[in-house]
Design a protein that fits this description.
The protein has helices at residues 55-66, 72-79, 86-115, 119-126, and strands at residues 4-5, 12-13. The protein has 132 residues and is mostly helical. A hairpin with a 6-residue loop joins strand 1 (4-5) and strand 2. Helix 2 packs across helix 3. It is rod-shaped and about 115 Å long.
Length: 132
């Protein structure tokens, strides 16, 4: 439904009437300028949540991460951001980096242990080392 105003005196005309009852001016059907939308009220942010990692949650997370293969699943989920607690996410990321470094070091040591007695011969075959 459109609002119609008198062009001469500005009176709001009743619906369906185009002759002004105050001044008698015949108004063509015009719509009133739409008022601007009301300004939004103040927006308050949500109160901060207390998602800090307590000692019990810290130890529980570490015990979960220590489980062989089963602990890897929540470790990857938490490290990728699958938790609201930033402290738990950082703990999982740090533990994941630690596991990668320790796994790489264990792999290097295992290769050196297996190839240890034959390492000079292997290097000579590769042409990188001279056998004395």
């Amino acid at each position: 439904m459109k609002l119609v105003f008198c062009r001469q005196c500005g009176l709001l005309l009743p619906p369906g009437q185009y002759r002004c009852p105050r001044c008698g001016q015949v108004s063509a059907q015009t719509s009133a300028p739409t008022p601007p939308p009301p300004a939004p009220g103040p927006c308050y942010p949500d109160p901060p949540r207390d998602d800090r990692l307590t000692t019990a949650r810290y130890l529980g997370a570490l015990c979960l991460f220590w489980l062989p293969l089963v602990g890897l699943i929540p470790l990857l989920i938490f490290a990728a951001g699958g938790t609201r607690s930033q402290d738990l996410q950082r703990l999982a990321q740090a533990y994941l980096i630690r596991q990668v470094i320790l796994s790489a070091a264990a792999l290097v040591l295992a290769v050196l242990f297996v190839l240890g007695p034959n390492l000079p011969l292997l290097l000579m075959l590769l042409g990188r080392h001279r056998l004395l």
